[in-house]
Amino acid sequence: MPPLNFFIDIHCHPNYKPFARAHRQSGRVPGPQGPSTNQRSSLWYYDPPVLTDKLANYFLSITKFRQHNLTAALYGRLLVMAVGLGSVEKFFFKNKIGSGIISDLVDDFVSEFGTPRINTIQRMKDYWSDFRREMKFMEEQEGQPVRIDGHWYLYRLVKDFGDLQNCIQANEADNAGLQKEQPLIISIIPSIEGLHILNCGLENPCDPSVVKANARSLKKMKNVPWFVTFSHHFYNELCGHARSLRKQIGKLTNQEEGINTGFTKLGREVLDILLSPTGGRRILIDIKHMSAVARKEFFAIRSNKYNDSFPIIISHGVCNGLPTLGATVSNYPELGNTFINPQEEARGGDGQYKDHNLINFFDDEILEMVRSGGIIGLQLDERRIANDETIRKVKHSVHRNKIMHYRSALLWKQVQYIAELLDDHGLYAWGNMAIGSDYDGLVDPLNAFWTAEEFDDLAAFFERHAYNYFKDQPGRIKHAINKLSADQVVQQIFRENAWQFLKRWF
What we know:
Blueprint: E1 7-12, H1 16-21, H2 51-60, H3 70-75, E2 78-85, H4 90-93, H5 101-111, H6 115-122, H7 127-140, E3 146-148, E4 151-157, H8 161-171, E5 184-193, H9 208-218, E6 227-229, H10 247-252, H11 265-275, E7 284-286, H12 292-304, E8 313-317, H13 333-336, H14 363-371, E9 375-378, H15 382-385, H16 388-392, H17 400-424, E10 433-435, H18 455-472, H19 486-505
Parallel strand pairs: 1-2, 2-5, 4-5, 5-6, 6-7, 8-9, 9-10
Antiparallel strand pairs: 3-4
């Protein structure tokens, strides 16, 4: 069992903004990662939000600060993280406002990537090379000690659970962090978000032989990704995606090609390559961003072809409050109705009215995940965890502790929903949830929990909600095995479940 003084995040992006800032000129190979913590191209660069940043996020849902960097992670006791690598898809920045100077200014205002990186993405013709440069960027400063607030730290790209255990054991030494020779270690587990990085989903049709060759190469890398998100925001010629972009960014971008479709022939071939135990290390599959149709196909493939031999991973997701695909009414309306989004009065590329519930997960999918021994990382994005009406009704306050209480309750409702769903089906309620923040994936964080630095605060408020839940509503959980103490619930969600999953599958 790990020590009790750190947290785990199974999906985050401390890499996106530093890698973007390593691009000095448009279209050129990026420079190295900054060796100094005060360089914007460093994973350690600390950029907490100021008042204007918080106001921009509150009123415009724009994140003008770094939600995730390794210094903020230290302050939040976040010492183990699965980091999502992979090129940002070009159609984020090659959108309806074009690719000129005005477009660059708008895109930079939203992303803070800088014009050189934005132009590089807009002109992208080779995702695979871009991904390899990003991996090299991560490897450049691995193992290099940095000094922060008088203590010494470094990060390592860990290769398996044994490697991770060694890092944690080193951190338990009495003098860990006090000397340059024995720094405190942040453990980074590489993963990938979006298999467009195999060189598919560009303007022109992909070369299937190149895509499959890249998939084989992925399994033999120095730092093999632990799992991959098969789809992302745009069609990648492998697998249909769920609608994920709303409001202004949804109007500027076009997700319609391939929306809500299933696996292609090439996608099934790539799936077999990654899941094969031969030709390198097996890479697990993360079902976030897959279309609901593709998720059903994946479950069938997992059962029929692979005999349920691997777990279902949802690295960053939440429930949509509906029992199954096609349902429109929640079986648990008290909480479920706070999640369900109304459909738009416009049809999408699938010919159906645009449905923003499909990016989140149905009750039967949560049950399938749990029965597989899988895990769900709870996403800390306000736009995902509750519908607009629910968010509008959240109480306001000028006091930070009250804001934290009200906003953390939004996420607690997701935890409560999953726990009661599992308890209702006679399953252990608390063993398959973790945190998958998606911080610096350009998400809209819970107000007052702006960055990884607030992980400690979020855990504390979760314990408050858990305590009140068991005290005030003791009858909602029926089975004795699911009646835990508040601190046990927090330990499981913020650390222990992810640790046990790593022990079994990493």
